[in-house]
Amino acid sequence: MWRRFWNGTSKKEFEKCELKILQEAGIEKFRIEDVYINETEFLHTIIVGEGPALVLIPGFGATVLFWYKLLKELSRHYTVYGVDPLGMGASARPKFNSPNRSDCENFFMDSLEAWRSEIKLEHFHLVGHSFGGYLSAEYTSRYPTRVRTLILVSPLATTKPPAGYNLKGRVAKMKCPKRGIFQTVTCCWERGYTPFSLVRGVGRLGKYALRVWSRNMLVSLTKEECEMIEEYCHQYLTLPPSGEYAMSHIMDPPAWGYHPIDEKIAETPNWQSPVHFIYGQKDWMNMNSFGAQKMLDDGLMKGEMHWVPRGTHHPYFDNPTATLEIILKILG
User: Fold this and answer.
1) What is the pTM of this model?
2) How far apart are CA 87 and CA 174, in angstroms?
3) Of 116, 164, 195, 330, which alpha carbon lies 20 to 30 A from 234's?
């Protein structure tokens, strides 16, 4: 009741937004399930299509429906399981009590493996975007025989900062107001605050904060598409904070990893899955793409680098046709 009064959001309104996006995607047959992994916790899951299993894990602050422009075509070839990680998206929001990186990773991995067991998936292709890419790599390092192919779309934390990298020094050289904004964001990050704290804190005005984000970051979408995504995001980002607090334990700003993907792969002696990296040509995460390329050059695993023309950090929005073609080509 309080959430509806303060933010103007509710479960019913979220479900309406969800159905609207699925309708926009042209998907007629689908299943939406809250897959319970224990008595109180569940992972929100959307299932479409028929064929070999393909699991999608969205990035930080997103849900699987950010992939809506690709879902219809993917569902022609695969049974697509889109799952929101525990404490994120529309999944359960348990109280977050993970004080370090290892506990944070266990928070996500234990719940994801329990979800897999409940769904009864034995083997599957795994696609993760951004933070979802990091989680996908961690899952594959723990359960290497389950993942047939690992596709990391603009993943964060591929590696540690290069030698001599000095974030504070770089920030000090920035001009105002950029320097002040970056210092404020970094300070909040280190203290566990996230952008979603603002969305919750300003009540119904959170929609306008999301409008600023969408109109500046999702520039390839039409005004109507932006409004649809803004309303959808507002419905779930106002849920109680939970898994988002893991980010400051896992990621070293702006996108490096305390235990990055290259170390996870190197430390897994029976790594079997080919790993393919997909980046947008205008992707801000390209700053750590050299980590992905080095893994391939060093022969840590089989795989390739792929680039989406005109793509930013959300290539499934910017150039869905090219992103889809790359994924289908990888999976054969």
Assistant:
1) 0.93
2) 35
3) 116
Instruction: Give residue for tokens 């292709």.
Output: 125
The span from the CA of 50 to the CA of 70, in Å, is 15
What φ, ψ does residue 60 adopt, rounded to 5°? Answer: -60, 125
Burial of 75 (0-12, 13-18, 19+ CB in 10 A): buried
Residue 288's pLDDT is what?
A: 85
CA 262/CA 290 separation, integer angstroms: 11
What gap in Å lies between CA 271 and CA 238, rounded to an integer? 38
Quote the DSSP letter at residue 85.
P
Of 182, 204, 195, the C-alpha closest to 253 is: 182
Q: Each residue of 130-181: pLDDT tens digit?
A: 999 999 999 999 999 999 999 999 999 999 988 777 666 666 666 776 666 6
Q: Which two tokens stand for residue 295?
A: 């893994």
**pLDDT tens string 281-314:** 999 898 889 999 999 999 999 999 999 999 999 9
Q: Three-class SS of residue 38?
A: coil
Q: Give per-residue pLDDT as tens, 92-143.
A: 999 998 889 999 999 999 999 999 999 999 999 999 999 999 999 999 999 9
- In angstroms, the CA 274 to CA 264 distance is 14
Instruction: Place 44 in a pLDDT band, splitting at 50, 70 and 90.
Output: very high
Between β-strands 79-83 and 53-57, what pairing exists: parallel, antiparallel or unpaired? parallel
CA distance 250 to 101: 6
Using the predicted structure, report yes or no on whether residue 260 has a pLDDT greater than 90.
yes
Prior bond of 177 cis (ω within 30°): yes
Residue 218 CA to residue 208 CA, distance in Å, equals 15
Distance CA 13, CA 236 (A): 10
